[in-house]
Amino acid sequence: MANRNVNSQISQEPKEESTKFVITSRQQMALITSTLIGAGVLTLPRQASEEAHQAAWIATLLGGLFAFLVTWAITRLALRFPGKTFVEYIGDLLGVKKSETVGKYIGLPITLFYIAIWLAMAITSTRLFGETIVSAVLTNTPIQVIIGTLLFTVFFYMMVEVEVVARFNELLLPLIIVPLVLIAFLTMQNIHLTNMLPLISVNWLAFVKSVGTQIFAYQGLSVMLLFMAFVQRGDNTRATAAGIGLPVLSYVMIVFASVGVFGFEELQHLTWPTLELIKSSDIRLFLLQRVESGFVVVWVVAVFTTVGNLCYGACFAAAQCLPTKKEDKARKWIAVFVLPIVFIVSLLPQSVYALFRWLSFIGYVGLIAFVLPVVMLLLAVVRKQGKGGNSHESS
Q1: First to last CA, the chain
Q2: Per-residue CA distances from 150 to 40, 168, 305 (Å)
Q3: d(C-alpha 94, C-alpha 280), whole Å
Q4: Could you check whether the bond before residue 273 is cis, i.e. omega within 30 degrees of 0?
Q5: How far apart are CA 341 and CA 343, in angstroms?
Q6: Which of 238, 302, 328, 236 lies closest to 24 in space, CA to CA?
């Protein structure tokens, strides 16, 4: 009886520390997948085939493999610094061990860069959402109303705790991934193999450039630098592989089907090639005669999780930069000021083509955010920073 009481006390001792680790490995996978699959899926086939032509699906696959490397680096950083976000351990990596506050200020430029790039991706995704809904569904509705409605729901998303965000992503993951993969698979019935040959018809420089542009589609995963601080130790690497594998599989299938159905030349003249791919297919799914309507519903959910996760990460990182211990309260107040800015800036592009130029610019700048986790991990290994070993659950 005494042993039972001792064991129960021991299991309850680390309760205050362990309550921070509120995200399971499955929810980690859902966060990665839900963040990556968003507005960009509608324009992905055109961007992929612009330089790589028939080999666009290979470029998409290689971009996904590089994204897996970056996600693995983020996971290893989280294992080395359990319970800490990148805002908290960036000072250690830059050589400041004595004061966490001083380390935050030294790493402030990196933190501000990530906040800016996450908000920029959220802004472009929001505008893409508005443009698509106006052109495909609600043609008579002002785009301001559509964007405002999205950001209004995101505002309530920002008011909840991080474990609620993780559970919400876990709940919506099947609704996003299953229809997307199913539709991509069914549209392959109209593929013309002549559109896929020759497999490599461009020089290697153009192909490498195409792989670089495909990395743009996976840049949202850098927000895991923040969320990984709350993930429980377990099969983190497997969850990472599954989280990045599902978007890569979906993207490769969509690009492969789009090139096979339309050919790379016709894709360059389609504004929303993925939506046109669904419209061109003779699919009758259950009682739906217009499958693109069902796809738009799924896509709206995917955009919401993408914009919500990016804004949540940006506001949380900003709250950690402030000299306050009430980070959750600070995050909510920051969201009150940030979301109106997202709304205003998302309306600045004068046309959808100006928006595409914004996307290209943000993509190239975002490559820095994509490479930084690998650099951070190398610094941690060389400087022997972080624990990297024992599970917090073993206590």
Answers
A1: 22
A2: 16, 16, 11
A3: 53
A4: no
A5: 5
A6: 236
Instruction: Provide DSSP, 16-52.
Output: HHHTT--B-HHHHHHHHHHHHSSGGGGTHHHHHHHHH
**pTM recorded for the entire structure:** 0.85
**pLDDT tens digits for range 226-283:** 888 888 876 677 888 888 888 888 888 888 888 888 888 888 888 888 888 877 766 5
Q: What is the pLDDT of residues 157-189, one digit of tens each?
A: 998 888 899 999 999 888 888 877 777 777 777
Angstrom distances, CA of residue 66 to CA of 189, 196, 201, 348: 30, 24, 23, 32
- Supply 50's token pair: 């612009």
Mean pLDDT computed over every residue of the chain? 80
d(CA 308, CA 324): 24
Q: What is the dihedral of CA 45, 51, 54, 55, to 10 degrees?
A: -90
What is the spatial distance between Cα 222 and Cα 86, in angstroms, rounded to a whole number?
A: 10
Q: Helices marked H in the chain — which ranges?
A: 2-12, 15-18, 25-36, 44-52, 56-80, 86-93, 100-106, 108-136, 143-158, 162-186, 204-214, 224-227, 236-262, 264-267, 273-279, 291-321, 327-346, 352-382
| Token pair of 202 as six digits | 């461009």
Look up residue 19 and give its two tokens. Answer: 């309550």
Identity of residue 238? R
Q: What size, in residues, is the chain?
A: 395
**Exposure string for 57-86, b = 16+ CB within 10 A, e = fewer:** bbbbbbbbebbbebbbbbbbbbbbbbebbb
pLDDT for 64-95, tens place per residue? 888 888 888 888 888 888 888 888 888 777 76
Q: How far is CA 385 from CA 85, 87, 153, 393, in A?
A: 14, 15, 40, 21
Per-residue pLDDT reduced to its tens digit, 301-335: 888 999 999 999 999 999 988 877 787 788 889 99
For the chain, percent of residues with pLDDT exceeding 70: 86
